[in-house]
Amino acid sequence: MMGFRSRRERQSSLLEARRAESYPYPYPTGWYRLASIDSLRRGEIRYLECLGKQFVLWRERESGEVLLMDAFCPHLGANLARGRVRGDCIECPFHQWQFAGDGSVAHIPYSERPPARVLASTYPLSDVHGDLFLFHRSEGSQDDRDGPPPYEVPRLPEVDSGRFVPRGRRSAGRVGMHIFEIAENAVDTAHFQPLHGRFRVPWTQIPIPGVEIVHTAEWMLDAEYPWVMHFDDSVILRAFGRRIGRTESKARVSYYGPGSLLVFRFDLEGLGEIVMYQTFLPISPLEQQVDFRWFADRTIPRLLVWYVIGNWMSQFPQDIEIWENKVHVPQPKLCRDDGPVYEMRRWYQQFLPNEPTSADVVKTSSPRERSTPAA
User: Fold this and answer.
1) What is the reported pTM?
2) Are the beta carbons of 65 and 44 closer than 8 angstroms?
3) Environment class of residue 13 by beta-carbon count within 10 Å: exposed (0-12), middle (13-18) or buried (19+)?
4) By the 8 A CB rule, do 94 and 102 touch?
5) Per-residue confidence band for 4, with pLDDT thresholds at 50, 70 and 90
6) CA dist., res. 357 & res. 220, Å (int)
7) How do residues 40-80 score in pLDDT, each as one tens digit?
8) How far apart are the first and last CA of the chain?
């Protein structure tokens, strides 16, 4: 099986600077996957740098609850990730102050008068099928910073009922791209055929001579939920110019938020469904941690699940090669047969700070919209 590692070559500082300044705000409002619960042992502490912040993720020894805090002790600034977990508290390595999961001071070894108020900043986590998600609000966020998130991470009722079972997970590692690219990827259906038209051995980059994947894709906004968009992709294999019967499959990819969480539904007619989560976590403006996890109907053979997921995994590296070497164009010169890029960018604006950034992703109208003649 192929390993997901970035093939990015060392780029010039000039190119990296040009790329960085061209993109919009890098940490949009949305849900972000941080880790799986099973990956964190009781008593373990993990230091995280992401979303422009520094965190400690730690797990209580007794209760097993996983908690998230600012990384630096509010007392005198030591990094709590260098401390240890004592019972259900995290202990600072500098003066051994102990903090409970709600951020309050539980114990100070040299004082019997710990501060009564909550001192350490904590962040609530959402557990969705064993994965931990954080709701991050961008600077100048349009929604109520103290209120609940405007939407939740979607759970799969089929998993809760036992109809779907876990079939695998995979990390793509860190990819040198801006998170905006995965959102624009959905509406740019014109790239599907030239970039993803060759059929490869699943999980590899080995092409099968003479066999193509024919894509028919369509993008749309969700009619009910303003933070959701979709694209539908119907594919069929073609060998030496002739379509191969019974190879057609359909997939719907739903974006929940700014591209941090994608949910794929693969419909295998008559056999059931496969559902896959794909998540993007901004480590820095031009670096994303990318992870996959998938579930399937119990009745679908494991080999078929391997084939379907592996076919998608074979296509992802072609996108990476483009993303890691491109810039963002705020006012692209589109042709009439390009997808509704400007409509998607206006939708994306809801996840960005109120104040426009230097690389504004949304313009009032596209060149196509301005030049379209009256009927």
Assistant:
1) 0.90
2) no
3) exposed
4) no
5) low
6) 26
7) 999 999 999 999 999 999 999 999 999 999 999 999 999 99
8) 54
Inter-residue contact 215 to 143 (CB < 8 Å): no
Give me the pLDDT at residue 270, please.
79
10 Å CB burial of residue 335 (0-12, 13-18, 19+) is exposed
Q: Could you give the CA distance from residue 278 to residue 290 in angstroms, rounded to a whole number?
A: 7
CA dihedral sign, ordered 269, 270, 271, 273: positive
d(CA 108, CA 101): 16
Q: Which of 280, 283, 282 is nearest to 263 (CA)?
A: 280
How would you classify residue 64: left for phi > 0, otherwise alpha for psi between -120 and 50, otherwise beta? Answer: left
Under 8 Å between Cβ of 294 and 278 = no
**Residue 294: C-alpha distances to residues 131, 156, 263, 279 (Å):** 12, 11, 9, 12
Residues recorded for the chain? 375
Q: How confident is the model at residue 140 (pLDDT cuts 50, 70, 90)?
A: low
